[in-house]
Specification:
Strand order of the largest sheet: 8-7-6-3-2-1-10-9
Order of helices and strands: HEHHHEHHEEEHEHEHEHEHEHH
Radius of gyration: 19 Å
CATH superfamily: Aldolase class I
Low-confidence stretches: none
Oligomer: single chain
CATH topology: TIM Barrel
Helix content: 40-55%
Number of domains: 1
């Protein structure tokens, strides 16, 4: 099990974080449609290969979460995508859930599915080169939600998933995401996120998951997008740290935040302040999708052949987040 702890630490060491490039084909199609690029397998691969061969992969990205389509693709130079990522000095990972579906008994909420046949799929992904995996549970906040049913069901699924992943010698990323959608206050987000995370660890311990061999991917503590007022970045950082300090067992080696609808700069600034105030032993880093890729995607869409220019934009964003993961970022560094 010390091998799993080493993998987890390697992913987040020295200011490195995770590039979440595990958008489903449907989600990636929406992203490409938004910048008027046709969503073909070739274009999806071209954009991802452009990012995966950027210099910041070596310096700033410790792991890449892939989607089923991508982990099986070949690069333009005929090497497998996991080989390219490994060659750049990063570790390949894979999203293994099959998506959030309506929760029976509470149709306003979701349960993440994908446990059926997971053991066999994990063996296949391990052979393809995956070193870690991801499973996302999602929770709404409102007057009545998340319900006890949603909190218990998703925690149970995350724990069963994690046990199977460790059995297959990979590191599970545990992602319980309390969504920003809604008009809840930051205090309500704090309360519900704490409840969700504590339940997840109860179940992980019950399922005999080695906590030294996982990574946690939580949301930051934010007010809902429709709440009357935003809290300051300092308050986001302090509430987030307080929540995690009181909810996450000390054995967990690292926490990689999701960006969850924040802008690129917001996600970087909040991560930076979290690390400035971080008085825990947890490594606090990033596992960003849009907040790492959006500017690069917009730039690339204007000229799909401008690989170098696209990589320059991506390298800048990755560097900013790497600095933020060390509490060394400032707005002056943004271009």
């Amino acid at each position: 099990m010390s091998e799993l702890n080493n993998i987890a630490l390697n992913i987040l060491k020295n200011g490195k974080g995770i590039l979440a490039a595990d958008e489903s084909t449907a989600t990636m199609s929406k992203r490409l449609d938004s910048v008027n690029v046709a969503s073909t397998p070739e274009n999806r691969l071209l954009f991802r290969e452009t990012l995966f061969s950027s210099s910041s992969m070596t310096e700033c990205i410790g792991g890449v979460i892939l989607y089923d389509e991508t982990i099986k693709q070949e690069t333009s130079k005929k090497s497998k995508i996991p080989e390219l990522i490994s060659k750049m000095g990063s570790l390949p990972g894979i999203k293994v859930d099959t998506g959030a579906k309506i929760l029976a008994g509470s149709p306003e909420e979701k349960i993440t599915e994908g446990l059926d046949g997971l053991r066999e799929r994990l063996k296949e992904y391990y052979k393809l080169g995956a070193k870690f995996t991801k499973w996302r549970g999602v929770y709404n906040i409102s007057k009545n939600y998340p319900s006890k049913l949603s909190i218990h069901s998703n925690a149970h699924a995350l724990a069963r998933y994690s046990a199977l992943v460790q059995e297959c010698n990979m590191v599970p990323i545990v992602e319980p995401e309390v969504l920003m959608d809604g008009d809840h206050s930051a205090e309500e987000c704090y309360e519900k996120t704490s409840e969700v995370i504590k339940k997840c660890f109860e179940e992980l311990i019950l399922h005999k998951v080695n906590l030294k061999g996982i990574l946690l991917k939580p949301n930051m503590i934010l007010a809902g997008i429709n709440y009357k007022e935003k809290i300051s970045n300092e308050e986001v950082a302090k509430l987030t740290l307080d929540c995690l300090k009181n909810s996450v067992p000390e054995e967990v080696p690292g926490i990689a935040f999701l960006s969850g609808g924040q802008s690129e700069i917001e996600a970087t600034e909040n991560l930076n302040l979290i690390n400035k105030y971080n008085n825990t032993n947890f490594i606090m880093s990033y596992s960003y999708g849009r907040a790492l890729q959006q500017s690069a995607l917009k730039f690339w869409s204007k000229d799909l052949k401008n690989i170098e220019g696209t990589q320059k934009v991506f390298n800048h964003r990755a560097k900013m987040n790497s600095l933020a993961a060390q509490g060394k970022w400032s707005k002056d560094l943004e271009i």
